[in-house]
Amino acid sequence: MKPLSGKVALVAGGTRGAGRGIAIELGAAGATVYVTGRTTRTRRSEYNRPETIEETAELVDLAGGTGIAVQVDHLDPVQVQALIARIEREQGQLDILVNDIWGGEYMVEWNVPVWEHSLENGLRMLHLAIDTHIITSHYSLPLLIRKPGGLVVEVTDGTKAYNETNYRLSLFYDLAKNSVIRMAKSLAHELAPTKGVPSLYRQAGYAQKSCWRNTA
C-alpha cells in the first residue's frame, strides 16, 4: 500500500510550477489530490499561461493517484467555500493543504522603487500572495483539523538564508514572498492546540520560473 493511500490533499494553485510538482508527488504516494487554479483548457487566467489544472490532474493520475481538477479563484471566498464543501461532500475529509497560489510574477517591475512601481499591480500581487492563502486556510482548516495527522504547507521561493539577508528587487515581491514564511509560522501557532496538525513552509529555492524564461 502506498503511504498516502486513503488521504485527501488540496493543492491550491496547482496549475504549474512547484504546485504541479507537489501534486504529482502526492499522487505518486497514493493520495487523492484536488488541483485548483484559474486556468482551464477552455479559459485562461490573467496570467495567460498555457498550463491547465486538467493537465496537472492527469499527471497525478499517471503518477498513481487520483487527480481532480476544480477551477477556483482563491480571491473569491464564495468559490473557496464551495470547493471545501465539495471536498467534504465527496471525500468526508481533508488531510493535506498546500497553499501555492500566486501567479503575480508578470506584474513585477524589477528594481523600480515603490513610488514609481504601478500601485495597482503591486497591490494585486499582495492580494494574490496573501489574501488567497488566508481565504483558503479559513475555509479548509475546519475540515482538516477534524482528525489528527493533517499537514499544512505554505509554498514560497528563495532559500531561507537568502530571504533573510537580501532584498528581493521589488518591495511588493519582497513582501509577497516573505509574508508566506510568516504566515506558516502564525498558522503553526494557531494549530498548536489542535490534534497534531503541523504547519510548515516549503521554499522552492531557485526553481526556474516562467517569467524568467520569458525574459531570457
Automatic annotation (TrEMBL):
Coiled coil: none annotated. This is SDR family NAD(P)-dependent oxidoreductase. The lineage of its organism: Bacteria, Bacillati, Bacillota, Bacilli, Bacillales. InterPro entries: NAD(P)-bd_dom_sf (IPR036291), SDR_fam (IPR002347). Pfam families: adh_short (PF00106). PANTHER family: DEHYDROGENASE/REDUCTASE SDR FAMILY MEMBER 1 (PTHR44147), DEHYDROGENASE_REDUCTASE SDR FAMILY MEMBER 1 (PTHR44147:SF2).
